[in-house]
Amino acid sequence: MNSLLIAVEGIDGSGKSTLVKYIEDELKKEGRQVARVATREMEKEPVFQAVVDSYSLDPHSPAYMFFFQLLHTHKADRARRALEEGKIVVTDRWDLSFFVWHENFGFFSKESDDLRKGISRLAFGDLKPDLGIYLDVSVDKALDRRMFGRGDVIDDIEAEKRFYTTVVTAYKLLAERHGWITVDANDGFEQVKKTAWKLVQEVVK
Q1: Three-class SS of residue 91?
Q2: How far apart are CA 9 and CA 4, in angstroms?
Q3: What is the pTM of this model?
Q4: How many Cβ atoms are within 10 Å of 100's Cβ, its own excluded?
Q5: 149 exposure class (CB count in 10 Å sphere: 0-12, 13-18, 19+)
Q6: What is the pLDDT of residues 112-170, one digit of tens each?
Q7: CA-CA distance, 39 to 76, in Å (whole number)?
Q8: Angle between helices 62-84 and 95-104 (to 10 degrees)
Q9: How many CB atoms are closer than 10 A to CB 91?
Q10: How many C-beta atoms lie closer than 10 Å to residue 184's C-beta?
Q11: DSSP one-letter code for 88
C-alpha cells in the first residue's frame, strides 16, 4: 500500500509532535514519499492569532469553533491531495480531538451527537486514519514536560489539572470507540518510538 494516513493524538505534553517528526524521518529513510500535515501551519500562525485577537474570540464560542473547523478543512484538503499523490500522510491530531473538546466543553457539548458528527464531517468528510495512535500520558507527567521541558508558564496548576483530567478520560473512551491504538507515553521516548514504529510497520506494506 502506498498512500496512508497516520494520525497521532494526545494531550499537550504527550509527545505528539516529537513522535510525528520521528515517524516522518524514519519513513523517509526507507525512501518513502511522506507529507507531514499540521492543523496550524507555523508560517500562518500570525494570521490565526490576529483573527482570534482582533475579534476577541472566546474558545468556548461557536464562532471560534467554526473558525477552527476552517483550519481543519484546510488540513483535511492538504491530506487528501497528498494521499492522491500516493504519499504517506503523518499528522498530529485528527477528528478525535474535535470530539474530545466538543463533547465536554463549549457550546456544542450541549448539542446532540448527530450535530457534532455532522460538523466534524464538514471538515474531515469520511477520511479516517489507517493508523490512529493515542499517546496516553498522566496529567502530572504532561504538565512536568510542559513546564520544565518547554518552559511553559501555567498560572493555575489546579485548574489545568482538572481540565486535562477530563480531557484524558474523554480521549481514552473515544480512542477505544473509534479504534485508535493506545500507547503508554509515560515512560521514556525510546520505548514510545519502538512501540509506535512497530505499529507503523504493520500498516506500511
Answers
A1: strand
A2: 16
A3: 0.90
A4: 23
A5: exposed
A6: 999 999 989 988 999 999 999 999 999 999 999 999 999 999 999 999 999 999 999 99
A7: 9
A8: 160
A9: 24
A10: 12
A11: E
